[in-house]
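Bumping my old thread because nobody answered last time. Still need a sequence for this structure:
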């Protein structure tokens, strides 16, 4: 009986050590758990919004990336808009959204953390957008160009994807635009019929509060094929900055 009791004690002790080792191993490989906090809005989304999240449970792996993804649909992922946090924080992280927001629209947000082995999403929250401030133009470069040239417009409150901005040269809209939240590229419309025009940016039915002057190059005549002739002779004019629209 004594030997059997001692044997049972040994078995129990070995099992206990094994259990402790398994618990330690399990703790080291636990997934991180993150909580997406409610979006902070100071009165109206026009004053900006702040995304934040907390890490409730973490493992020992190094955090390589953390941030937020948001969209107009639920369960946003990396295929949607992504905001990365510059300074990694193992307990709490946040970022201010600077992108222009659609008015009267619900957005969905999820936090995320990327470690050496895992990519973990937090829970989803949503917020209602009142829109953003109108676009603001800082600079047009170059301010002097030609029909069909590409110009660069820098400023604030542009569309993040660059797809929803519209650029106007007086009453003529640029047929092609692209860019991001602070830079827009636009092609000078061939229909533009004024030496000088005012450039404005529209986004979500809001026009920029300011405008910038843009100018078309004046044609330069270098030479002509002949200086004398009569109807219906053809005279060829050589030079620069002529329109290719007849």
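Sorry it took so long. Here it is:
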């Amino acid at each position: 009986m004594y030997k059997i009791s001692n044997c049972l004690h040994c078995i129990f002790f070995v099992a206990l050590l094994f259990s402790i080792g398994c618990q330690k191993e399990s703790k080291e490989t636990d997934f991180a758990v993150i909580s997406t906090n409610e979006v902070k809005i100071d009165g109206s989304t026009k004053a900006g919004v702040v995304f934040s999240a907390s890490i409730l449970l973490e493992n020992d792996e190094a955090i390589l990336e953390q941030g937020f993804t948001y969209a107009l649909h639920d369960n946003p992922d990396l295929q949607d808009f992504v905001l990365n946090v510059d300074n990694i924080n193992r307990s709490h992280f946040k970022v201010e959204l600077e992108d222009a927001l659609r008015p009267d629209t619900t957005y969905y947000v999820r936090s995320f953390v990327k470690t050496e082995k895992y990519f973990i999403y937090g829970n989803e929250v949503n917020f209602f957008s009142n829109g953003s401030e109108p676009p603001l133009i800082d600079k047009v470069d170059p301010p002097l160009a030609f029909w069909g040239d590409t110009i660069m417009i820098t400023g604030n409150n542009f569309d993040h994807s660059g797809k929803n901005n519209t650029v106007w040269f007086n009453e003529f809209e640029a047929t092609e635009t692209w860019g991001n939240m602070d830079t827009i590229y636009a092609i000078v419309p061939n229909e533009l019929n004024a030496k000088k025009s005012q450039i404005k940016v529209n986004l979500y039915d809001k026009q920029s509060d300011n405008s910038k002057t843009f100018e078309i190059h004046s044609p330069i005549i270098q030479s002509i094929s002949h200086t004398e002739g009569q109807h219906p002779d053809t005279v060829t004019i050589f030079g620069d900055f002529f329109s290719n629209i007849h």
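The mean pLDDT is 84. Let me know if any region looks off to you.
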